[in-house]
Amino acid sequence: MTKPKQGRGTRKARKTTMADYAMSFERLGQWISKRARSPTLRHPRATSLSMLDGAVAAVVAGPVSMASEEWVCRAMRDFG
After folding, report:
1. How far apart are alpha carbons 58 and 62 in whole angstroms?
2. How does DSSP classify residue 69?
3. Cα–Cα distance between 78 and 80 in angstroms, integer?
4. Closest Cα to residue 56, out of 34, 69, 71?
5. Which of 37, 54, 46, 34 is nearest to 77 (CA)?
6. Is residue 76 packed enough to be buried (19+ CB in 10 Å), middle (13-18) or exposed (0-12)?
7. Do residues 76 and 48 touch, judged by C-beta distance below 8 A?
8. DSSP alpha helices (H): ranges in the chain?
9. Cα separation of 22 and 42, whole Å?
10. pLDDT at 71 over 70
11. 8-38 tens-digit pLDDT
12. Which of 74, 72, 77 is nearest to 42 (CA)?
């Protein structure tokens, strides 16, 4: 999906779906990596995009259903 060009006098495209707010996989990977290296922010348990992908695959393929709040928070930050 390409972003609409914004010239002088044109309006920004209106965001209408959750997909419009989503980061690209490349940007998400950079965000995870930057956060994992931060000396001040809590480090995520998933320190790369491939680790996050593995965690999501395990949740999807696992024998027990989990609410997204249970696994997303654990993957994206460490509580310990």
Report:
1. 6
2. H
3. 6
4. 71
5. 46
6. middle
7. no
8. 18-21, 25-37, 49-61, 68-76
9. 22
10. yes
11. 556 667 778 878 888 888 998 888 888 888 8
12. 77
pTM of the model: 0.56
How far apart are alpha carbons 80 and 26 in whole angstroms?
28
* Lookup: tokens for 55: 């965690």
Radius of gyration of the chain (CA): 17
CA–CA separation, 57 vs 67, rounded Å?
Answer: 14
Q: pLDDT tens for residues 43-61? A: 777 888 888 888 888 888 8
The first and second tokens of residue 29, run together, are 């990977």
20: tokens are: 């419009």
The number of beta carbons lying within 10 Å of the beta carbon of residue 59 is 17
